[in-house]
Hints:
Layout: H1 10-17, E1 19-21, H2 30-38, E2 42-45, H3 53-66, E3 71-74, H4 95-101, H5 104-120, E4 125-126, H6 151-166, E5 171-177, H7 198-203, H8 206-214, E6 219-222, H9 240-250, E7 256-258, H10 265-268, H11 273-283, E8 288-290, H12 297-312, H13 318-337, H14 349-357, E9 359-361, E10 374-378, H15 395-401, E11 406-410, H16 415-423, E12 428-432, H17 439-451, E13 456-459, E14 471-474, H18 480-491
Parallel strand pairs: 1-8, 2-3, 3-4, 4-5, 5-6, 6-7, 10-11, 10-12, 12-13, 13-14
Antiparallel strand pairs: 9-14
Helix pairs in contact: 1-12, 1-13, 4-14, 5-6, 6-8, 11-12, 14-18, 15-18, 16-17
Amino acid sequence: MTTLARGTDTLTRDALTVLQPGFPGTTAPDWLLRRLGEGLASVGLFGRNIASPEQLAALTAQLRAERDDVLVAVDEEGGDVTRLEVRTGSSFPGNYALGAVDDVDLTRGVAHELGRRLAECGVNLNWAPSADVNSNPANPVIGVRSFGADPALVARHTAAYVTGLQSAGVAACTKHFPGHGDTAVDSHHALPRIDIPAEALTARELIPFLAATGAGTKAVMSAHILVPALDPVRPATLSRPILTDLLRGELGYQGLIVTDGMEMQAVAATYGIERGSVLAIAAGADAICVGGGLQDDATVRRLRDALVTAVRTGELPEERLADAAGRVRSLARWTATAPGGTGAPEPDIGLTAARRALRITGADGFTPLTAPPYVAALTPVANIAVGSETPWGVAPELDRLLPGTRAGSFTGENTAPAILAAAGERRIVAVVRDEHRHPWMSTALDTLLTARPDTIVVEMGVPQSPPRGLAHLATHGAARVCGRAAAEAIAGA
């Protein structure tokens, strides 16, 4: 039974209800439990909160002992962005691999199995899928998180993913509205701008979101991007023309609107999180996501008080805050009554999908390796969404198949001589991630292939650069299962 602290007024409860804060540690701190008793209705989980499925289930049970209808959200896209398996790499390939296979039944099945595992641990809201059309190859933050560059393909797989996830009883949160794919700036660091006409936006970016709303997505996440054709002043998260007029009005969406993380610099550095939160709710957002970086009670109190003050001074209509809180509670009721997934678990569906997504070029002259190679990972700086704590590559799986495999990680200029020295006489497997975005990777491969033309190249990002090497393997993502699929091909397993 949900309990609310006596003496907590309706306005304050509503202000708490629209917040989705994070917190430190693998158990709930006292302040969080206290806020749940006062009206807080959602929490967001990150990699720091998850050690194992058993621990996660205990944590969500602890939260529900205080508030039985609490929304427990996580950023679990599978693929490169994983929180359930942040320290091992994901058992599921990400969107780009699923788009490469282009089997909507497979996408639906992967999403269902991922949702089943989330539900089993007590998570009932997933900040996924990404419905962004990755039309800009230079995009530093979307890339393999997208199903692809074709709007129709992205649309059909977004709809399949939403259906599969929600059939397991986990609410989908389709992101990042109105589309983060045509950006060359990471909104974690600055405010991206998309300068395309409204007609082009309708014909490309909005198509997958229409598919998601048609599939019944329970939530949509806004993007911290400036789209002058829609609103020349404010980013989408703070824009009434985008959230209310376009998403609610023209697209007819009536579910929950969640902001992207308010501490991201696109908003925090320009408006501040307090004013940004007030503007977001006024614009039509219903839930304020914060906690990827800021994760304490002081942040919750700051945002709660900013919303209450905005209502009392007339800046934010009380009816708008009450409406937002009502939508949060409505989704909480759905998760409490949603039927869970049926059928037996499909533990191997992720590996099956990763194997089907693998593309090999130049295989005619390639003979699988029988001796342990040297694996050189050309490692770029990870974006914040992916994080640097999740392992990637093919070395662990190759070492399992070819014991004695050695490996190293290399970054920056003059990489190739170091790789050649470390490899010695061993065959080289060079693993890259978005070679087309990193000139130093291309330079290193030029030198490596000149000195060692028998080098095998594995691209674990977007395979935009021309294939090269004795054999070129494109995994369409860096999930653990993608690494395994590539290792199996290299070793002929």
